[in-house]
């Protein structure tokens, strides 16, 4: 039997959904469609756009800095995805064991995620330059220094957030399965790799998706830590698009074309990654 509240929701569901739907259309659909259209235009503002076909895309793919930033971003994303997920799972696994001050350690690991990316970038800029100063170097001395500096910063910020997701997954594991593994004589190593990790694949799917997309989209930490120096060799793709759009007059359309290409690359990679990890999920 349907309650009065249920009947009201069924009758007026469109009215309840309208505010959220309107916000989604205004805040996402309209800007996205306009962005795709502007990628085929030459413009300085959205009111003086002039259609130029695919010339913006031709200029984008012929820019060597764009390809350098793309390769640099892919390498950065691969390294950070592996490091963040391995360390976050290891920390979560340790912090689900019974010992004193577990909640304190969880809070400490999670705290870096609460700090803004720009602030973190400047903090780590001071720290890394202080260390490198002993060798007469700085974080902007080469793209290699910038790369590993950003890896260190990003991993330090994200491990605590992914740790929380892994802890939730570990706490939701069925106890009877783990007890059955112990009764069958499985060692802790065998239980971890043959029982725990396969059952944790839903959490691994979520965390790997977040780290992959986050690595590709990283901008503010890159801006604050290296600003692309030296000579744009430590420039990630988001910063390259920003510089093209705002730093070169008349190249707004090229920057918008790069943004569309960037969206397609991230979407394809995220879908592939999600399918690969989802296919390995097992039911308890």
UniProtKB/TrEMBL annotation:
Which PROSITE patterns does the UniProt record give? ABC_TM1
- An example Gene Ontology biological process: transmembrane transport
Q: Which CDD domains match?
A: TM_PBP2 (cd06261)
Q: Which Gene3D superfamilies match?
A: MetI-like
Pfam families in UniProt: BPD_transp_1
Q: What InterPro entries has UniProt attached to this entry?
A: MetI-like, MetI-like_sf, UgpAE/MalFG_permease
Sorted keywords for this record are: Cell membrane, Membrane, Transmembrane, Transmembrane helix, Transport
Tell where it localizes.
Cell membrane
Transmembrane residue ranges: 12-38, 69-95, 107-127, 197-216, 253-272
* Topological type in the membrane: Multi-pass membrane protein
- Please classify the protein's predominant subcellular localization into one broad category: membrane
CC terms in the record's Gene Ontology section:
plasma membrane
Which residues does the UniProt record annotate as the domain ABC transmembrane type-1?
Answer: 70-273
Family assignment from sequence similarity? Belongs to the binding-protein-dependent transport system permease family.
Q: What is this protein called?
A: Sugar ABC transporter, permease protein
User: Which species is this UniProt entry from?
Assistant: Bifidobacterium scardovii
């Amino acid at each position: 039997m349907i309650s009065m509240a249920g009947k009201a929701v069924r009758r007026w569901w469109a009215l309840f959904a309208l505010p959220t739907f309107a916000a989604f259309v205004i805040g996402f659909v309209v800007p996205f469609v306009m962005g795709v259209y502007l990628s085929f235009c030459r413009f300085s503002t959205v009111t003086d756009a002039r259609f130029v076909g695919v010339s913006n895309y031709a200029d984008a793919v012929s820019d060597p800095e764009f390809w350098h930033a793309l390769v640099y971003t892919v390498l950065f994303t691969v390294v950070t995805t592996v490091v963040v997920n391995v360390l976050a799972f290891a920390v979560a696994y340790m912090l689900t064991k019974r010992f004193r001050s577990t909640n304190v350690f969880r809070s400490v690991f999670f705290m870096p995620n609460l700090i803004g990316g720009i602030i973190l970038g400047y903090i780590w800029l001071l720290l890394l330059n202080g260390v490198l100063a002993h060798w007469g170097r700085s974080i902007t001395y080469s793209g290699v220094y910038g790369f590993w500096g950003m890896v260190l910063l990003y991993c330090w910020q994200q491990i605590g957030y992914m740790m929380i997701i892994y802890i939730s997954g570990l706490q939701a594991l069925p106890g009877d399965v783990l007890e059955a593994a112990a009764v069958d004589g499985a060692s802790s190593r065998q239980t971890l790799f043959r029982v725990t990790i396969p059952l944790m694949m839903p959490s691994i799917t979520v965390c790997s998706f977040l780290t992959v997309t986050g690595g590709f989209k990283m901008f503010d930490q890159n801006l604050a830590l290296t600003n692309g120096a030296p000579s744009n060799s430590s420039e990630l793709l988001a910063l390259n698009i920003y510089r093209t759009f705002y730093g070169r007059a008349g190249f707004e359309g090229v920057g918008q074309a790069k943004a569309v290409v960037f969206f397609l690359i991230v979407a394809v990679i995220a879908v592939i990654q999600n399918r690969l990890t989802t296919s390995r999920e097992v039911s308890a």
